[in-house]
Amino acid sequence: MGATKLRSTASALVAPGKGILAADESTPTLMKRLESLGISSTDESRRFYRSMLTTTPGASEQISGVILYDETIRQSTIEGTPFPEQLQRDGIICGIKVDTGAKELAASPGEKVTEGLDGLRDRLSEYRELGARFAKWRAVIAIGDGLPSSYCIGVNAHALARYAILCQEAGIVPVVEPEVLMDGDHTIERCYEVTAKTLHALFDELFEQQAMLDGMLLKANMVLPGKDCPQQISVEEVAEQTVRCLRDVVPAAVPGIVFLSGGQSSKHATAHLNAMNNMGPHPWELSFSFARALQQPALDAWKGEESNFGAGQEAFHHRVKLTSLARAGKYTADMERS
Ligand code: 5MM
Q1: Would you list the domain boundaries of the chain?
Q2: Are the C-beta atoms of 252 and 283 separated by less than 8 Å?
Q3: What is the rounded distance in angstroms from the CA atom of residue 244 to the CA atom of residue 249?
């Protein structure tokens, strides 16, 4: 895939009204989510759950791409079609998580660096063969006493840029995700400062390593106070601070910014995305790549019961439709179910 194809895939992922479903939980993360609802996590239950989400009738009108985990890209849906083939049939672009996780950062207690660069060139070519046309790599930046260090921001930015350029060489659109975490009691101002610094370091590295900015997407956190911060911030304020921070740092050549939900409720994440889109026009598309904010209602409706397959799909599609409306600033809280 040449530069033109990278650009068109990146643009298709953020086409009007559309966004990405992140379904790339590693096995331990998905196990935690399932077990918190009393559902046992087995190869079969994970396959069933991910079949339920990705084969939801009509969801391809709002979902442009799905990020799969290594286990899923090699599995078939419950109908027996390999996941990448099923997605392609439905007009959904197949994505794959290619990092191998955030690990303790040496000499910097409390901080992490994301690994996965060793052998990445070969893995990307295998994933492309399997049908992947975009990829994701997530770095995590924690805010705390004296954190984050410039060292942590720097090594993660360097790795993200190395990943991005290897993806582009392989004809795969990189979704570049430096997530500033919501954990802690920090203020929204502190989140703004850390997010801006992290994005500055990232775009310096992307420039240095000659990444094609119009052939990638940025997966960003919203600018929010920490989960334990007593500060009350309105939806409009979050939208205003997030857009200001991104406008300060993210080049207009990037076709889209897809937000992670980061532990916000589905309603909050949707309301924030909606308010940001209401403040447009922006230099880039503002879309979504939520995991929890799209999946939670489906998980709650499914409850691990085969007989709730339809109810799970219905809950998922409702959430997807509301999130898609937020892409155009057309979501209102009264569309939520009680
Ligand atoms: C789906 O979760 C992804 C990370 O999984 P692991 O921690 O198990 O590797 C994560 O990267 C996710 O795609 C993003 O954080 C967005 O998810 P949320 O839930 O924040 O929208």
Answers
A1: 3-337
A2: yes
A3: 9
CATH code, residues 3-337: 3.20.20.70
177 included as an active-site residue: yes
Model confidence pTM above 0.85: yes
295 Cα nearest atom in ligand 1: 19
Rounded to 5°, angle at Cα 244 from 63 and 258 = 15
Q: What is the CA(261)–ligand 1 centre distance, in A?
A: 9
- Atom of ligand 1 at shortest distance to CA of 22? 13
Per-residue pLDDT 10s for the chain (338 aa) are: 599 999 999 999 999 999 999 999 999 999 999 999 999 999 999 999 999 999 999 999 999 999 999 999 999 999 999 999 999 999 999 999 999 999 999 999 999 999 999 999 999 999 999 999 999 999 999 999 999 999 999 999 999 999 999 999 999 999 999 999 999 999 999 999 999 999 999 999 999 999 999 999 999 999 999 999 999 999 999 999 999 999 999 999 999 999 999 999 999 999 999 999 999 999 999 999 999 999 999 999 999 999 999 999 999 999 999 999 999 999 999 999 86
CA of 71 to the centre of ligand 1 (A): 15
Put residue 57 in one of left, alpha, beta given phi > 0 → left and psi -120 to 50 → alpha. beta
